[in-house]
Write a structure and sequence with these properties.
The structure is a homodimer. The first copy, chain A, is an alpha+beta fold. The first copy, chain A, has 18 helices and 27 strands. Chain A starts with a helix and ends with a strand.
Chain lengths: ~750, ~750
């Protein structure tokens, strides 16, 4: 079935390629039938429906009023097309960015309101660009591996063309054939050629950059009806002479030898069958706009391609996936390079949700998200959504526990998300055992983050960058992104001998991925995710198993975290927990230094201040803290030789680029095989208004590893009331129907399946 | 007029004293006319009105339902009266605290719902206490200067009696005379005696502790109709033998020789005529409940005292004062020892607002606060408020710029609050030039804090304590409150030679206060507050003048901060700015150390890490940061010898009791007279969702002191567009009608009044 679908798409594509072979890049659109515009995103039929509904669809009307106010203000301000000069955050960058956003909106307003002032504005802007483009040199800022002309990187030039193509489509019929010819000859075709033929290292890749480039060329090709450019967009440049060892600014490879490129390859490769995009949710969000807007355009202009069915409907699937990759506030998990705070309120997700609703079978849960967003696209899709909301069709979007496989065929590890309701908020565990994630990947195999509602309990640091804030390195990636944010020690995962996974080597990391061992969210009282990593440190295998457990003795679900490390060598292992807030108590003695020194000299350790070291003789180290008015206690099994380190980010940070946030690091030394076994409780709360401290103490008296061999590990949790819970995990066989039996403290324990959870008394 | 009022109150009091001379402490209530109960807070008439309105007043009904649910759950749980053992946060402390809160509520429910189960519950609890009290020793925790029996300090025992008196009043008629006699003999009278005669060092003071003690004794006296105890409550113990050098746990003096004590003295002395309570808003909030609830009881039982008119109606005035001492979120400015986050949503402010509305002339603005609180008292006052809200009488409570004088007669400095609307939120400057503030005072003469909406831009650290969190020093004041929070360097004020004001000596501090020089909020475009301090450092005068300026060239109001320091000696001066957030840029070079050392060894400096030091050769040091998604830039006039220090709280903090927040410190060395002149801009914003950085740069090109002598200082602010603003301040004469003239850069500048503000071009 799948094969046949793929085959039919391929046949269509071959046809497209065949037809386009005769096209010439320098020719303008071969088809002058202007009657059909707009047809890219807005359609003639859609415009009619919209006009008919104006005033009757509250959210649509509100979005329209907002856009109109914004564009009217810009029209009053007048058109500015400055000679490019600045990095992101600077005037010329922000101005050109605003121009393409406003041009697209003005085009839409022209169609919907049928008011020529908007068309005139777009026309004037287009000709202002047409005037400067032919003589524009490459952008003066030299940092990018692919410099644009309007912007410092081709990526932003491509953004421009994606939006301006839509504006052009909207005013196509307003312009005379002569005007169109002039624009296409002097602006659009050279523009498309520059970001493709002129920058193959940008265009011919599998990367979000290239997706933008491909889509930019594809969008203008569809408006101009230029098959050659469309083929280039879909399938890439035929030749590029890219050195297979070449890398981009982020350290990512440009292109593997023989790799397929173009829009379709960018759909094939980075998207898994579950709709997970290998770079992570932040970049998936960024890429979704071009992916979906071009898909919509292809659907409208080339319906025979059935683009929304491509790869088993991966594009539509990816929208739901992306929505599931958010916390309770709708903010994306900052896996890999992700800027915190980016959320499904972004314009890319407004368009994704609208397109997903319109072309994906009117899923009523998407209306709930759209309602939260309070904004819709001013096109057929936004109208559908606004009407759906108006008509009360919205249903809650309930995020569930789920596993998202990584890799084009879903075989390169993945991300496991467990969710469970607590006393007040939902708890979310995000477990990462994916592939490298291209150039935006971090060395964070088997890392995780943990949320209570919209608050991070244990954080993923995200990226070291202030996107678009010019003063901070031009708004681009800071050196600390490499020296800190990507390093293993910056994550809640095991670090061996103070070196990062794969020794921080991108090529090695790119060849490997973790492997899921177990994912089972079927029992809401004991959800589990488990994965193994055997390549990050040659000779060492790490196996992490995490449970979210609901138990009557605890106010909130417990996070049980078990890391089994087996190694042929003797090593030092560090496991950090990046918590937030104020330390309330510990059950062990520690010393705080009079003078703070960095915890190490490289691999990220140089960025951590050592704020204190302790040891525990009780078998357990307990640390409690208060964050967002709630108490948390981490209990972890230790021996008296383990170091318990209080650390804080911020050493060797001469420009104060890092956030000075704390970590608690458990260090096990001079050991080969070992386990890190920890339980994190969320308990009680504190209000500075009532000044009541409710349930401020841990419920755990003792956490113990009661059995451990190469096949099994068993943990007991004893509560302060003397109740005992036993958790056993089979480490080598995760089959659901496999029967197991072991002797723990002279008692036989028998069970079926990969794990066992029992209240003993 | 005032004098006559005072005189009449005194006459009434003399009468009370006269009558009570014949009373004997051990006698029970002389009046057995049970028909009049309840009459303390609830009244028989009030109960009738409440019953008549039940079901018709939404907020009252909601509050009643909430209280009923809470009490019903406690009744199900059963009564627990454990033998006292714990500090605050511990089980016995929290249980006894819950008991008195629930008992009071159960009493109210009995009256309103006429359901005997509530009376039975109160009765059972009272007798449970009656059973243990006679043999209870002093509380085993020894930390307090006045240990209680149920709690570790008499303060909490007094809280208990204030609430339980109300419960007793409500069930008075439910009990038989014999039962009442037993309770009064074994519980109430010994209890009242213990916290008064048994602890004169607690009872006979001017302090919030004593207010609670006085009111506790007074409330039970009113219920029992015991005039001797009532006199003791109003006027204190006749003899106490308190050593005039004795201090309490917070380092405050117990009592000055010959000082008046008792409830009325506690109204006379710490309240200024403006209703400002010298300990600061956090403790004013704490004291308001006993002040007002006893006033209400006196009003009901002894209407002839006209307590609400006492001291020109200061109690009712204080309610509005307290509401004005909050930020946009209703949180109190944490002046002196104040825990952040405490707000007008606290139960003390619910009662204050209700009582203020009912007895203070039905001010409709209070209804707006009550509406926000969403909760009312279950008595006559709460009913009035709920009816007012139901009937739509609420009007917005608009906080204005105002000066609150400190000191019993208003002559001991004060607090100046300037408020002005910005582009998005209101800006609030809180300038502190008050007296010491008793034992909860900080050494922070001429300090200030600054808010944008509900967010702190420049913070007052507040206290070093986690109130009621047992793990943190029993929930009590931590040693860092003394070593850090009270010290001058912990505040946004000038510190000379790394010593605190008054050398951190409480006695000296208590003898002195700053002096207001100028407060003028009449011109919304240029509001000003100015004060002088000449005792904090003998031989040195500090004069701080702060403007909030609205100017067309700036997106938001500017804070202009001018500190003139004159000294007969050569000193080092430090001026810290406790900002929040992430540093974005600076215009000067600085070095960050490889290893962090404390900035000093004592007076709070031992708690600051030195994270970097720079110098500026341009005449201005500029620092920009991003906090709460907004940009801020501080521009300050410096010379190349001034040190620009990046500091962070947290050194020498072995229990991690401090919050690791940053400061920027301007240090001027080896100098006698000097000025600190700074402008703080709030500009633009950054959204992680749109990733747009709007107006991310300072608008100031140059800040300059263009004139300075002993009489005048003139500042010019040049914008990046070349516009020039001139601000001149007369330093020695603040008269409104005084004409001034000086020559600045060969040009005569003439004006009338204390200051001059002009756009030059």
């Amino acid at each position: 079935m799948k094969f046949i679908k793929k085959l039919s798409v391929l046949l269509v594509l071959l046809l497209v390629v065949f037809v386009s072979c005769k096209a010439q890049t320098k020719s303008i659109s071969k088809n002058d039938n202007t009657q059909k515009h707009p047809n890219l995103i807005l359609t003639q039929k859609g415009v009619e429906s919209i006009r008919a509904e104006l005033g009757n669809v509250p959210i649509f009307d509100a979005s329209l009023a907002k856009v109109k106010a914004e564009v009217d203000a810009e029209i009053l301000n007048g058109i500015e097309v400055p000679i490019p000069k600045d990095f992101s955050g600077g005037y010329t960058h922000e101005r050109h960015k605003k121009n393409f956003l406003i041009a697209q909106k003005a085009g839409v307003l022209y169609q919907i309101l049928n008011d020529e002032k908007y068309a005139a504005y777009v026309k004037e802007m287009l000709f202002a660009y047409e005037k400067i483009y032919p003589t524009l040199p490459v952008h003066p800022q030299t940092r990018s591996y692919a410099r644009g002309k309007l912007f410092w990187q081709c990526l932003n030039d491509s953004n421009w063309l994606v939006y301006v193509s839509q504006a052009y489509d909207c005013v196509y019929n307003y312009l005379s054939p002569k005007e169109r010819k002039q624009l296409e000859k002097n602006l659009f075709i050279p523009f498309a050629n520059f970001i493709s033929e002129g920058n193959p290292q940008f265009f011919n890749r599998v990367h979000n950059h290239s997706t933008w480039g491909n889509v930019a060329v594809g969008m203008i090709a569809l408006v101009m009806d230029n098959d050659e450019l469309l083929d280039r967009a879909l399938n890439g440049l035929k030749t590029d002479n890219i050195d297979p060892n070449a890398k981009d600014n982020d350290g990512g490879f440009i292109k593997k030898a023989g790799q397929k490129v173009g829009f379709l390859a960018n759909l094939d490769e980075p998207f898994s069958p579950d709709g997970y995009y290998t770079e992570g949710p932040y970049y998936q969000r960024y890429a979704m706009y071009p992916f979906l807007v071009f898909a919509e355009a292809l659907h409208n202009v080339k319906p025979e391609m059935k683009i929304f069915e491509y790869k088993d409907g991966v594009l539509l699937k990816a929208i739901n996936t992306l929505l599931n990759l958010t916390d309770a506030d709708g903010e994306f998990f900052p896996l890999n390079d992700g800027q915190k705070g980016m959320s499904y309120y972004s314009r890319e997700l407004v368009s994704s949700v609208d397109i997903g609703y319109h072309y994906g079978g009117n899923q009523p849960e998407l209306l709930a998200i759209a309602k939260d967003q309070g904004d819709v696209l001013l096109d057929d899709t936004g109208l559908s959504v606004a009407i759906g909301i108006r008509d009360g069709l919205a249903k809650p979007f309930v995020k569930k526990s789920l596993q998202l496989r990584d890799g084009a065929d879903g075989t390169q590890g993945g991300v496991g998300i467990l969710r469970v309701n607590g006393a007040k908020d939902e708890f979310t565990l995000v477990s990462k055992y994916s592939a490298q994630g291209l150039s935006h990947g971090h060395y964070d195999k088997l890392s995780f983050s943990y949320y209570e509602g919209g608050n991070e309990v244990l954080q993923d640091y995200g990226l070291a960058r202030y996107v678009n804030i010019q003063q901070k390195g031009g708004g681009n990636y800071l050196r600390e992104n490499t020296t800190w944010a990507k390093q293993s020690i910056a994550h809640n995962t095991v670090v061996q001998n103070e070196t990062s996974h794969f020794d921080g080597d991108f090529e090695t990391g790119s060849l490997n991925h973790s492997v899921n061992y177990l994912f089972d969210a079927s029992n809401l009282d004991a959800q589990v995710v488990s994965a193994k990593e055997s390549n990050a440190y040659p000779g060492t295998e790490m196996h992490r198993t995490q449970f979210l457990l609901k138990d009557k003795d605890f106010e909130n679900p417990l996070l049980l975290d078990i890391v089994n490390v087996t190694s042929s060598n003797v090593n030092q292992y560090d496991l950090p927990f990046y918590y937030f807030g104020q330390i309330i108590s510990s059950n062990f003695k520690y010393n705080t230094p009079k003078v703070l020194s960095p915890l190490g000299s490289k691999n990220g350790y140089q960025h951590l201040w050592n704020e204190g070291v302790g040891n525990s003789t009780s078998g357990n180290a307990k640390l409690s803290w208060l964050s967002n008015e709630r108490f948390y206690t981490l209990t972890t099994v230790v021996n008296d030789k383990d170091d318990l380190i209080f650390a804080r980010i911020g050493a060797n940070d001469p420009d104060f680029n890092l956030r000075p946030e704390p970590a608690f690091i458990v260090r096990k030394k001079d050991i080969g095989n070992t386990q890190f076994v920890s339980v994190l409780e969320s308990h009680g709360n504190y209000s500075p208004v009532t000044e009541n401290a409710i349930n401020a103490f841990s419920t755990i008296k003792k956490l113990e590893v009661v059995f451990s061999d190469e096949n099994y590990i068993a943990i007991s949790v004893e509560t302060i009331d003397g109740n005992l819970k036993l958790i056993v995990v089979s480490l080598k066989d995760s089959a659901k129907d496999k029967k197991h039996s072991i002797i723990i403290k002279d008692k036989a324990v028998e069970w079926t399946g990969a794990y066992h959870f029992n209240n003993l008394k």
